[in-house]
Amino acid sequence: MDAMTLYVPRNSPIHRLDPLTKMLYIVVSIAAAYLLDGLWEVAAVMIISFGILLIGKVFRNILPVIALSFLLILSIVIVQGFFNPANETLLFELGPIKFYQEGLVIALRLTMRVINMVCAFGVLVLTTSPTELVERLQQKGMSPKIGYVILSVLQIIPQLRATYAKIQDAQRARGMETEGSLLVRVKAFFPLLGPVILNALNDTRERAIALDVRGFDRDTPKTYLNEAKSYRYSVLLNVLLLLILAGLIVWRVMG
Amino acid sequence: MVYREDTGKAVFPSRVIRCQTTVLSGMLAGPVIGAASGIINNVIYGVTADPISTVYAVTNAVIGLMAGLFAAKGWFRDIKTVLLAGLIIGLVAATVSTPLNIVFWGGQTGNVWGDALYALLISNGQPQWLASFLDSIVVDVPDKLVTVLISYFIFKGLPKKLTNTFLKDGAIEEL
Amino acid sequence: MSIIEVKDLKYRYPDTTKLALDGISFSVEQGEFIGLIGRNTAGKSTLCYALSGLVPHFFKGAYGGSVEIAGLNVRTTDVSEVTAAAGLVFENPFSQITGSRFTVYEEIAFGLENMGLPRDEMIKRIEEALDLLDIRKVKDKNPFDLSGGQMQRVAIAGVVAMKPKVLILDEPTSQLDPQGSEEVFKVVENLTKEGITIIMAEQKMEKIAQYADRVLLLDDAKLIAYDTPEAVFSRDDLASLGVQPPAVTAIARHLGKRKATGHYPVDLEELKMLLAEEGAAHG
Questions:
Q1: Alpha-carbon distance B143 to B120, whole Å?
Q2: Most CB atoms within 10 A, among A21, A125, C109, C153?
Q3: What's the predicted TM-score (pTM) here?
Q4: B69 reaches A (C-beta below 8 A)
Q5: Chain C within 8 Å of A224 (Cβ-Cβ)?
Q6: What is the residue extent of each domain of chain A?
Q7: Which residues of chain C make contact with B175, given a CB cutoff of 8 A?
Q8: Rounded CA gap, C7 and B172, in Å?
């Protein structure tokens, strides 16, 4: 069973960047997209994110994630394009539905911001292995307990899903209908919920015991099996990103 | 102590169930864990499947926090107060989500019914904050009400021996 | 000084009225292998928790008497120090895999990192554990992708690498298939040769008879017997205590073949010898 992560191992400069730099990029990129107003400016921010993903050789992998936001984007386009009270200039008609320029401009800007948000996250998530990310955060002082929760969740959830599937199979073998109309599936859901949740909670409790046995709650400072990675240009890039952010905020506040 | 953080797991790929586990965590392990569970749920889901969810980490944290507070105050014993709690949690969730929705996606939620209401209100000259708030209400209140109800039934059905281990540290008695 | 010293141990889980352990006293010497037997509700698991400090620190509840592990008083010592001295392995392999590591190698390192060991010491211990538990061939695999027997051996490796003075195994093969069980028992045999003190709760009496120096029999929260396997399995009241003796002993009892000590044999070779002697005696 695969861990629940979008990470795609590749050999690229982006993969070799400090995870903290990438996290900083998410903040700066999203902030930039929302601080800037002009369509071209926002487009530029989005295209920069595309560019970074391309350099990271993971552009293809962000597309399904963008697709998840399809409904949101569609809804924005329709509501803004059609219903925005500031709408005046008619752009085109689709049958009885009229789409106006002002609304569509707003929709386009919002859409680019949403796509940029997804891509910015992609820069971190597609190019950083969970273990590397957590170890870097712990190096910077994050509690190992939080690090543990992040990593274990990525693996244990798929495992629990497999258990859910097994329990569902067992119920089906006992003659329970699990396929079919929504009503049938909802009805099938509740008797399944009990054993699944009980199983998950018991498992959680046992794992907590096992963690105690392995010294998880110890006060002594933790050491690491893996050597700490050193990242090139990390400080330079981080400072650069922070300056850009500061600059944008100042610009926005002033103008 | 760790297992209380662990209760923020058992997440299934469905938005409803994610809030479910947050509420259940809050009920089992208290407001702090409920809030932590809310944040972890959304951040992890956001980073592993859909980045848009990270925006609502704040909302989910508040939901978990409130579930824990209500549980501590004993609201989850009687069905009437359970319903009331669900209603309140839904309203608070909508309130917290509204500014988020306005900043990030111009007031909409992405939900068909909610956005339809938004569109209707906007085109009738209502202010954006109101349209967005009512949009969120449509999305959040029924959803949270059902979530809290389901959590209540699950919680009731759990053996006491299990729920006890998730509560805050007790003292060791002498024999 | 005994490595384990239990004096009048009493324990009650929170929100219960009945004692789970009622006045248990015994001691264990370094290097001994103690088999822990009794019916399901006798208190074996609770005793295992008490020896590793989880009772009372994890479970809370009401506690009386004292348990000393390698000189540490369990009640007053921090639980992570106690578990470092007495490692616990229990039934379900899945819930003993931490889930935060993606390879078996790193999974074994988990406990060692928490102990704050230097890197070369960690690597040394992991390499030793891989061989001791015979899991070298899966060292780069994800722990969740293993069979039950392999997963349980990884769990044991994770504990053994921390070099506890005592290793407690609470029915480690109950959830495994026959092959997995065999793998784990083979590993237990390897461990006995390492000189580590072992407490093993088991239902498979043949294994207890094979490995144990002494057997501790519990029933209804009380200590019923603490003696050699022969002595305990030769008791007349085993059935009423919910315990089946090993097949060899049951046959010996049925045939009325006692040893010179007055006990029934637990070992097949001994039974064969007794039968051969009798055959020879009858000419």
A1: 22
A2: C153
A3: 0.86
A4: no
A5: yes
A6: 19-128+233-254, 142-213
A7: 10-12, 62-65
A8: 18
